[in-house]
Amino acid sequence: MKKQSFFYRNSLSIVLIAMMLICLYGQFVTGWRTENKELAEEGQHLLSVGEYIRSGHFIQATFENWESEFLQMMLYIVLTVSLRQKGSSESKSLDEKEDVDAEPKPHANAPWPVKKGGIWLKLYKHSLSIAFALLFLISFALHFYGSYKDYVFEQAAKKMTAMSAQNYFFDSRFWFESFQNWQSEFLAVASIVILSIWLREKGSPESKPVDMPHHEN
User: Fold this and answer.
1) pLDDT of residue 4
2) Residue 203: phi, psi to the nearest 5?
3) Minimal CA–CA distance to 24: which of 56, 80, 65, 54?
4) Which of 48, 91, 173, 195 has its CA 20 to 30 A from that of 164?
5) What is the pTM of this model?
């Protein structure tokens, strides 16, 4: 058997993480310049690179987006367990049981929680959605922290009194930041679910075979 390189075996995750880091760097640089431009126009102290990376402006913008991504993936994983879409490559079969529905059985190469059984197996059976739920909650908390920090910074610059963190949690500004991202994530998922009924991409596991009828999953 031909030996495959490390990059070939892991190229999808490597490329995606590299693209994320490039875009994160771009977000940081452009966000830093934008914030300093606004501060200069208001006659305020400009932020250094170190100050900006700790600023509410950067933290809020970063985790506001991460939060919506993790929420999207968590709900998509959970909803696809029981919900269906006829003809979509993203849906399980309407009639037949699939391998993912089978109860796990211990064997030599099974992950250790499967061999261990009990509470470990129960947790492991839902570990993917649990992981995304935790990532969502962490990102949500950091989004709130960054958003409130940015709000307090703005109020101080205007020499105005900032509301408490408790009151800010229920403020429309914070929830506007969340909802504007959440709706776009659900639209993106709905788009691939629906478009994959009729459209194809040869070679992609996210698409049905090119010659498969539209009505089949």
Assistant:
1) 86
2) 95, -10
3) 65
4) 48
5) 0.93
User: What pLDDT was estimated at residue 3?
Assistant: 78
CA distances from 149 to 28, 31, 32, 70, 88 (A): 17, 16, 16, 22, 43
Task: Give the C-alpha separation, 161 to 149, whole Å.
Answer: 13
Q: Which two tokens stand for residue 185?
A: 């994530």
CA distance 134 to 113: 20
Strands annotated E in 88-129: none
Tokens of 156: 């101080």
Structure tokens given for 204: 């992609």
Distance CA 151, CA 205 (A): 44
CB contact set of 210 (below 8 Å; sequence gap of 6+) = 200, 202
Least confident residue range of 3-7, 76-80, 83-87? 3-7
Instruction: Report how far residue 39's alpha carbon sits from residue 193's, in angstroms, rounded to the nearest whole number.
Output: 43
Q: How far apart are CA 24 and CA 88, in angstroms?
A: 32
Written as six digits, the tokens of 63 are 């985790």
Residue indicated by tokens 């089978």: 102
Answer whether residue 1 shows pLDDT above 60.
Answer: no
**162 token code pair:** 């900032």
Kindly state the tokens that stand for 64. Answer: 């506001």
Residue-wise pLDDT tens digits, 146-171: 999 999 999 999 999 999 999 999 99
